[in-house]
Amino acid sequence: MVAARSAFEALRTLAARLLSSDEPGSILVSAKLVASLFPASLLQWSAPARAASVTTEKAACDLTKARVAAHGHLPISAIAFCDILVPEAQPKGFYVLGLHGKRDDCGGDICGSTLMGWFAVQKATGEVFEWDMVDEKLGQQVHDQH
Question: Is the pLDDT assigned to residue 29 strictly greater than 80?
């Protein structure tokens, strides 16, 4: 992302220099140059960065809390903790965890189920998915926006 922004700034500086030149035809050259370079740099700048790998259960928990909170338009503080499956029960390449919410309707004490759902985090990419505990398979990917 930083490299793309740097490229965008360099392109903007070059275009400004060429547009301010008094040399005949420089505006036409500038317009053609900007038209040929700008779309590629804009696409590169706006492309989503590849997700980072997740190497710890804590990182998987934190990522899932943030993704589910954003997806559900909830404050992250509404999610109390993660219940992480033992490594032997997790599919290769994933962390599987249950998210539990806070319940203020019991006077601050937890009463009843607080399970918000089960999720799987792909270790290699950091992508978060719903997890079907009954069939032990991936569900829909959880995006930041609902």
Answer: no
